[in-house]
Amino acid sequence: MKRTIALSLCALVICANNAGAMDRKILTIASEGASPPWNAINADGQLAGFDVDVGRDLCRRMNVECTFMPQDWDGIIPALTVGKFDAIMSGMAITEKRKKSIAFSTPYAGGFNQLVMRKDLALPATDTSSKLDLTSIDAEKQAVIDQLQGALTGKTLGVLRSSNSEAVLNELFGKVATIRSYDSQDNMHLDLVAERIDGGLADYFTWKTFLDSNDGGIAMLYGPQLSGGLWGPGVGVGLRQDDRELIAAFNSAIEAARQDGTLKRLSEQWFNIDVSPRVSN
After folding, report:
1. I need a labelling partner for 277 at 20 to 30 A (CA). Which of 85, 90, 151, 250 fits?
2. Are residues 151 and 105 in the same domain?
3. Looking at the whole model, is its pTM more than 0.90?
4. What is the pLDDT of residues 76-118, one digit of tens each?
5. In degrees, to the nearest 5, what angle opens at C-alpha 153 toward C-alphas 222 and 35?
6. Domain with 253 in it: what CATH number?
């Protein structure tokens, strides 16, 4: 009898814990606010961008009210795990390394990274429209990497600290170039304009905002469009691993937004191209 009561109480506790995530009426979502058009701080001092608009749409579908807060990139995962907020939507790639600390929703966007270099360096020409998937490296891909390594030998390259791009940059060019890590994309841009670095690696869409600005005229895209490998399958919502109901709720909302074209519409609005995941069959 005591065992039956104990098991019943245990079941009640488990059910309560599983339901707790969606019992909340308000969710707090964190974003870096320094990687436009993914996310940025607007003229009113509020978070704005693709991540924020997608987040609002997903919250509407989940029937919860969402508030958005800025959080420095370096501490964004630790802050999630200790409960400072409920979710991360900050152009964060889904990777195996991050999945050791947090969970992810299914992807709500894709994308690629690309090198940008100063024009005055007069580097050998490259095909910036070509694609290089780093998931597996064959002889043809290695030849492209070798050419890039030759062109960038001795150069100083910037990258966002604690990002997957930092790991890729070190893996591909750490032996031939000096790697300098930054706490924000804006600070890397400042050093590029001031010629304290020769170039850098970052998300293409973040670069595009810079290259389209007045300061960006001193630089250009360089080398192929890089994807796969450490960047994983796409960009997802970062969540605590035990928030299973919330993970499921985000997945359902993302699928609905994918199916009805909302992700496509928002990505075209912010990026001028469709970076939404393919619709599930």
Report:
1. 85
2. no
3. no
4. 999 999 999 999 999 998 988 899 999 999 999 988 999 999 9
5. 40
6. 3.40.190.10
